[in-house]
Design brief:
The chain is built from six helices and twelve strands. By secondary structure, the chain is of the alpha+beta class. Strands 1, 2, 3, 4, 5, 6, 7 and 12 form an eight-stranded antiparallel beta sheet that branches. It has a two-stranded antiparallel sheet with strand order 8-9. A two-stranded antiparallel sheet has the order 10-11. A hairpin with a 2-residue loop joins strand 8 and strand 9.
Length: 244
Amino acid sequence: MILLQADPVSHRVPGGFALPSGVQGFRPGPPALVPERILRIQGYSDPERVRAAIRDAAAQMTAVAASLCQAQVAYRSVEITAMDDQGVCVLDGVRLSSQAFAHRLEGCHHLVAFVLSCGEVLSQKVIDLADSGDLLEAVLLESAGWLCIEDATRQFKHWLREQLEVQGCRITSRMGPGYTYQVDGQEVTWPLEDHPNLFTLFEGAQLPVQLMASCAMKPKLSRSGLYGVGPLHQTQVGRPDRSH
C-alpha cells in the first residue's frame, strides 16, 4: 500500500490534508506568474515589441489571476489489479480504458488519480470580462489561469514525487482523459468519454471540480489525470518525470 503523508515538504508547498472516503487533498502555494509568458501564449514572440496597452493589460491580468487563484487538488492512491492492451483495472473494480496504459504504466503497481482546479472565482472572472465586452482582458486572464493550472500541477507533482521517493517509488509522466500519446509510432488516445470512470474513484468526497454531462469539467480552469507509481530503481518507458 502506498501511503502519502500530509506533511509539508517546503515553505512554498503547504502539503496535503485528509478528505472523506480515502481521498486526500493538497493546496499548492501561490502561483509564480510573469506577464511575458502570457504574451507568448498569445503569439507575441518578442514582448518588448508589443504595444504598451497590451503589455499593461497582460501585467494587470497576471496580478488578477494570482490574486483570484484558489488552487486545490484532490487525489487518491489506488492499487492496480490488472492491465491489458485495452486498459487498466484498479482495486475498486474501476476500469480505465486506453491502449496507452499498457505502454505508459508498464511496471506500475499503483495509480494516483487527481482532479485540480483554480477555483470558481477565477473562472467566473474570465466570463464576466467577456460578457462586459473586455475581450482582450478576458483572453489574457484565461491564459494566466491556465498558467496557474500548470504551476499548481508542477507543485503537486513535485510534492507527490518527494513523498513517494522516500518509500522507494517513482512516478510516471502525467496522463489525462482527452490526451493523445505516441505508442509504437501510432497516436493512441485516452478518450474524454472515460472521464466518468476516473471520477468514480472520488465518490463520496467533496471535490474542487464538477464533471458535466459533456465529460468536461466545471470550473473551466480545471485539470484531471493520473500518475503511475512503480519501483524507483526500475527503468522503463514510463520513467520518472523530473521535468519542471
